[in-house]
Amino acid sequence: MEQTFIMIKPDGVQRGLVGEIISRFEKKGFTLKGLKLITVDQPFAEKHYADLSAKPFFRGLVEYIVSGPVCAMVWEGKNVVTTGRKIIGATNPAESAPGTIRGDFAIDIGRNVIHGSDAVESARKEIALWFPEGIAEWQSSLHSWIYE
């Protein structure tokens, strides 16, 4: 099974969307393997977004992520990275379809509620960064009702 990193950003936490977002991943059939509410410091935020450090929006993105608590999660399931990105919607909420998290809950790209790994390799790196202590190793009793 594949794993992905999902982070509900400060605006999503402040707006009380954590339960709604978790519910969407659970209803799809994915398994929650790690969860923590954390306030991120600047060096950690810079490390998380290191691949974007040359972009003009990098400084604003770091300031935004450290502005309040985030909800960091690891989800597991078949094709969870690709499917998770579809559940989340386009980075720009104006391009996100209704029914996606960003399509339903975001307006501005700078307040787009959620981050999701964009590839299996980036998911591995993000999970290792955010969950150095490891994740819960368990299998839901619903597994056989979701997967063939």
Describe the structure.
- It is built from eight helices and four strands, in the order βααβααβααβαα.
- The longest helix has 11 residues.
- It is globular and about 45 Å long.
- Strands 2-3-1-4 form a four-stranded antiparallel beta sheet.
- The protein has 148 residues and is an alpha+beta fold.
- It has one domain: Alpha-Beta Plaits (2-Layer Sandwich), CATH 3.30.70.
* CATH-level-2 architecture: 2-Layer Sandwich
| Main sheet makeup | 4 strands, antiparallel
Q: Give the strand order of the largest sheet, numbering strands 1, 2, ... along the chain.
A: 2-3-1-4
Question: Helix-strand pattern, N to C?
Answer: EHHEHHEHHEHH
Report how far apart the termini are.
Answer: 13 Å
List low-confidence stretches. Answer: none
Q: What is the CATH superfamily classification?
A: Nucleoside diphosphate kinase-like domain
What's the tally of helices? 8
Give the strand tally: 4
**Which CATH class applies here?**
Alpha Beta
Which fold name fills CATH's third level, the topology?
Alpha-Beta Plaits
Radius of gyration: 15 Å
Form type: globular
| DSSP helix fraction | 40-55%
Strand fraction equals 15-25%
**Domains counted in the coordinates: how many?**
1
Indicate the structural class.
alpha+beta
The average pLDDT value, as a whole number, equals 97
Write a compact overview of the structure shown.
Pfam families: NDK. The protein is α+β, with helices and mostly antiparallel strands and 148 residues long.
Properties at a glance:
alpha+beta, Alpha-Beta Plaits, 8 helices, 18% strand
